[in-house]
């Protein structure tokens, strides 16, 4: 593919953003939050956390430009690598590295797409899940889609990651064979680091709160954009939260 070509596939028609690949870059819908997110990405990468897109500015159509990470993201049906122990290990360790690197990021004049949550311990990705991970068939390459980031507690990200890769999510059911949800969760928290991870009861309470918050946001986004198909997602989040209860 030449640098001037655009391709679709998994790169177009997202639920929140329009995304296109152009050569070795990805072009995405930008907004008032884009300068903050690009500064954040540059900051975290400068701290040594490299498994993230490189921010490359804005193109002549006003889209943000990011480097392309080669590999597969998890769609449906869910690929087998999502449930491999190495994925939870890599994801937990990378999320810890991201969180630790963001602690010293200046919040002065920052503009966020998503609301902050207290306590603002770190900058949360807010959407860390297999569909925002890139995997090369052997290991996790990195995280993508950072534009939803905003300040919040570590548990806010860990709860959603656990929801998606430990088997609680209705549209990402874990295979019947293999480890249990609790065992997957323990593996994830171990890889993140128990010294900074919340307790399991605290994380489960956060997961319920997180799902209701996400359902509220999704319903409002569907109302303001006309993307009414997202209401099905909101209903799923509420059903999953009820099952947790």
From TrEMBL:
Residues covered by the Aminoglycoside phosphotransferase domain: 114-172
Domain of life: Bacteria
Entry protein name: Phosphotransferase
Species assigned in the record: Isoptericola luteus
